[in-house]
Structure formats: C-alpha cells, structure tokens
Design goal:
By secondary structure, the chain is α/β, with parallel strands linked by helices. Helices cover 33% and strands 13% of the residues. The longest helix has 20 residues, at 392-411. This is Amidase.
Amino acid sequence: MTIRRPQHSDLLTSSDKLGLRLESHDISDYLTILEDVCADYDIVDSMTPEHTQVTYPRTPGIFPTPEDNPYNAWYVKTEVKGKNKGRLAGLKVALKDNVCLAGVPMMNGSSTLRGYVPDIDATVVTRLLDAGGTILGKAQCEYFCVSGSSHTSAQGAVVNPRKAGHSAGGSSSGCAALIASGHVDLAIGTDQGGSVRIPAAYSGFYGMKPTHGLIPYTGVMPIEMTLDHVGLMSNTVEHNALFLETLAGLDNLDPRQQHLPISFDYSSKLNKGCNDLRIGVVKEGFNWDNSEKDVDESVRNAANLYKSLGATVSEVSIPLHRKGHAIWSPIAVEGTTQLLQGYNYGSNWKGLYVTSLMRAQRDWQQHAAEFPHDLKSCLLAGDYFSSQYAGQYYAKAQNLVRRLKAAYINAFKDFDLLLMPTVPLKAPRLLTSDASASNFVTRALEMNANTAPFNITGLPAMSLPCGQSNGLPIGMMLIAPDFKEATIYQAAAAFERAYDWPNLTHNKA
C-alpha cells in the first residue's frame, strides 16, 4: 500500500490550523519538499507490524442474555485456559473491558468502540495465563472508565449484588459485581482516581491499587499515563497477594515502569500479624461534606480493632490531604482530554502502541454526542483550561504532586501504614433514567476525595471491607510507602482472619 499523498487543499488546511500563513502559491513547493517524507512513510507502512505473541487458544465468546447476566456485569463471556499448573491454577478471572484480549470484543463501556476486536493480549493477560489462571470473559466498565459509580456504561447500569438497586461502584463496575457475587475468584481492573478501590468499598471485597508502574499497563486502554494503574480485585487477601506476585514486574514495554524492586514476594507476611505495625489514622480522611456518619464511625471502630491485634494505632494530621483531590483534578481532566485527542495513546513515549485501538478510536468525535454527561463535562473542562491557559495548570498540578507526596512520606517516618475511609459514603441508589445532567455527574464523581490523591502520588493503597450498615459494605483504605504492598497485605490479612466483616454491623443510634 502506498501512503496517500497530501493534496494542495490538505496543506492549505494544515497551514491555517497551525498558523503558518502560507500563500496558495507556496503550497506547490511544499508538496515537492514533503515527497521525501512521504517516501519514508511508505517504507514504514510496508514493514511487518510489531506485535506481542498470542499463545493461548480462545474463541470470540458470546454476549450473554439478561437471564445469564443478572447484574449486567458481563460484556462478553468466553473461556481462555492458561497452563495446567501455576500459582493461579484453578482460579477464575474476569478482565475489565479496557484490557486487550486478542480475538475477543472490547468496547470499554463506550458506544464508539462497539465492534472493536483487539489483535494483541495485554501483558497482564499473558502473565495470568502463564500462571494457570482461566479467563471467563470481559466485564462491563463505565464509559471510557470516567465514572466512579456504575450507571454510565453504554450497555446499561451494573447492579450491586449486595443490595438491589444500588451502585456497584466504578469504573471497574462489572468486575465488582462478578467478584462480590462469587462468579469469579479474581478480576483485573484499572484505577485512575479510585476505580478499583471505590467498587471494593461499595460492593465489599479487596481492591488493591499497587505502586504506580508495578504492574505493566501494556495493552490496556489508557486514560492519563501518570494516573494509570492496573488494580487487583478479589474476595480474599491471599488471592490478591498471589495475583500481584503473578502480575508485577518489568515488561520493557511500559514507560510507567521505573526503579522497580527485584523481589515480588507479597505472601510471606500474610500470617505475621500486626504486633510490629504502626498505623496512622489520617484525621483529614474523615468528615468530608458528604461523609456518612456510619461510614466514619465504622472505619474508626475498625482502626481501634487493630489495637486488639497488637498494632500501635494513633491519629495523624496531614492537612495537604484535604487538597489532594483538587491537585488531581487538572491532571485528570486535561490529561484525559489530551490523550483522547491523541487517539488514546498520544506520542513522545517508548513502548507498545496498540495501533488497532488507535484506528478504532480515530473518529470518536463523530460519536461524541453519545457521550454521557460525566465524560462531556470532563472534555469541556479539559479543552477549556488547556486552551485558555496552555496547560499551565496541568503542569502546576503535576509540580504540586511532589509536595503532596512529601507530606505522606513525612508521615511514614512515624507510621508503617496510613488508614482512612476508602470513600465517604456507602453505595448510593442507581439513578433513574430522567436524572438531570447535574445529578448524573455528581453521582459519577462524588466519592473519590480520599482515593484520587494516591493516583497522583502513585502510593500503593488497598480497600478492605471493615463492616456494613443497612445491608451495604463499608470500606477502609490502607496506604503504604512505594513498593510496600507486602505491609498492606500483612495488616489486611490479620484483620480478615480476626473479623468477619459482615458481622461488624454499625450500631445505629
């Protein structure tokens, strides 16, 4: 195939767009000049594409009927069996539908990607199959993974298995419902503002967002490269730790990965207990404007239960935590907008580009009117502030991240772990179809004040269920220094052994 050569009208359009002010009679000279560049593009076009190897057989799967999909959690069901033995042998896994699984449809919750079929396996897919796991399908997620609730997917709302009519949490919403209902043992989600930990809190299971870059993001549809995290979802701490041992490590294809540890042993401390742990209860993680009293009280009660397990527990103040979400906001809205305009991969980084996904996303603006209100509001804000201030507030926020992270690191001088509510509230009711744009956006973004700061700082954080109220789970979040996931698992496993969280019922006044 020969690359289409630019025409006179193409260069005139580009000149106007770029402000070059070329006269029409100059265009002919530039058409000649650019022929050598076009010849280079011809060479690149003729070369065999660079792909990762797909080694395990699979079928495209089936789209389940409503009867076979009671929580609307599956997008497509299939079965991809890994090796006969390994640390994940016998475990059933769901993939969030922004993770590439070659030959199986993927739509990332969006109408714009309906019909897209990836041609590669994400690195995490290969690793879990090599470890003996079995993939049962792709789980629904929120539209382009922007929402923290479960009402924005083009395929319809995902329902919380713990209580009908309530949000399962987002954006890894389908994974949440499948884990909480016991349909799968493990799920791979992603987390840019809390999208693994929020569902864990709303639906009652263990959701780990590891240190930024610890798990390669290769082959997963990005949102904002400095926020992108692959996260792990499970019904037990042990399975979560085994999953991280399987997926962690360098793949040389993801620029997010830097200065990784050389050992990924997260199971060895599971039975160690809490006698040596110092836990700081972050004052600023409580009493938000939308905090529910039973959530704050249940998390404080759970923190006190750690004392009975031998941990040293005391309150710590980190005032800058209260501004963490505000620092996250310009990075999220401007970064998301810029990356989407770059066909979801942008440029200026080395690694694996999923060119088939870039092609599928190329004409997204032709379908932008179909976007849900939360995505529209993000794009409007991102475009306005990027254009009005030339990215200065994105840059200022990224610079402020260092100050915020230093505040957490300073607290770690006195504590091994920090503790706070994962989210300020329990899973709310799903919205009705006549909800206003304002209510739609509020419900999508109302819960991530505590989770978002650990996306921009990259610190590992895990939500674990610590009680329930009115039939809905309550989540407690543990945070550790970079690459200290084993300490989080140590504390989470001790709590899991000692307390049956559904029986830690909040005592209503």
